[in-house]
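step 3/5: co-fold with 6-O-phosphono-alpha-D-glucopyranose
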Amino acid sequence: MERPLGASGRLVVISNRVPLPAKDGNSSAGGLAVALEAALKQHGGLWFGWSGRTVDQVENAPQIIEAGKITFAVLDVHRKDFDLFYTGFANRALWPICHYRLDLLQVDRSQTEGYFRVNRTFAEALAPLLGPDDTIWIHDYHFIPLAAELRRLGCRNRIGFFLHIPWPPSDIASALPAYGRLQNGFTAYDLVGFHTKQDADNFRQCLLRENLGFPVGDGEYQVGGHRFRIGAFPVGIDADAFAETARAAERNPTVRRMRESMEKRRLIIGVDRLDYSKGIKERIESYSCFIRSNPQFRNKVVYLQVTPKSRSDVPEYKRMQHQIAEQAGWANGNLGEVDWTPIRYINKTIGHMALAGLYRMARVGLVTPLRDGMNLVAKEFVAAQDENDPGVLILSRFAGAMHELDAALLVNPYDTETTAAAIARALEMPLEERRERWRTMMDRLRGNGIDDWCQGFLDVLTSGKSPVPPPQEG
Ligand code: G6P
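step 4/5: write tokens
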């Protein structure tokens, strides 16, 4: 379907990470990047962001890579600025605050300034590449002030922003000393999107509490002479394509090796970046509690936790790497047998195909973040299941995905004993109930695919229509 972007306009996507085409032409991009690429291809488009390199001498002009109908433009960042912008403010102030972790908030004036400076540098590099009819879509917490910087440079284009992580209530958000500046930055957009109504409501409450303008009608907000929209756009996946990948993955060598190593035990799986928001520590505690209180499952299950390391230069993440490795070691030491390792904890990235196959093999998917914007692992786990004998999803009530996937076993991940009981219940769940729950969830996934998300956001951004509330939240 053609979207009504500006007459001669392109779509311009901006994100910190840019899925540059591989030299061999193969792309390793995930579902979300694939959907954005498809939208870019439809109109001819530009994808702008960080090159992935830090340097000591910065070139002001971005590097341009042409790939068919998409132009990629990427910028190197000075090593010191990157430490302040990414390792500092974005991931030691914004990330913990947005995940309700006031205890981990690091307040550092030079990091804050570095964040705003890098945003200004990106705006200055992007502005000359823009045409007057381009529609601009900025992604995630790294670039909240980017629209305000572009406006300062005279950009009058339609600009949308989507936050891929949660937005907290105003009492938490306002603990950030740069809060007022960020809020002002948001008001330079034409549309600000979140995954859930709860996040959008939190954001509205923040604007009201700061006396920043007032709501005018459905989803619209007026600040000074500028009106913008706020909406919830829950991101989805291409459920049928993922199901197909999972079916095909039965022959995948990693999946085969895993199956052979199981020796008829049942698989419980968790897949997360190594991040404190994912609740991995609490999950290992719950699993250990499950084994202790359900001795009939000793040596009958294997819990595979796939956890690629992430943001290792951020001290909170580095500390966590040690803590979780130690905890998994303790659990195996205390619970294991000569012929049974209760937890297989690995810090490798596993390819898309093999993961799909592992989800399909698993009887239980443990997706128990302490706070998460959406969580696509939950959705992919459901899509990967064999409809005749589906596994059970155990899902945190603090993940955005729970609004659509409420037919999962919903748990409070802080409550070790109840989560442990949910694992036992999932393993003992009769086939009919598993099928029923799976069907309900799969229908929801089919009703809100990744293209719906992309088109839904762009329709509201370009047409000025009011955002439709996501169906699951009324
Ligand atoms: C989250 C964020 C993304 C980010 C990803 C990986 O999903 O919403 O913007 O790219 O984590 O984190 P990293 O810091 O490695 O980019």
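step 5/5: annotate
The chain has 16 helices and 16 strands.
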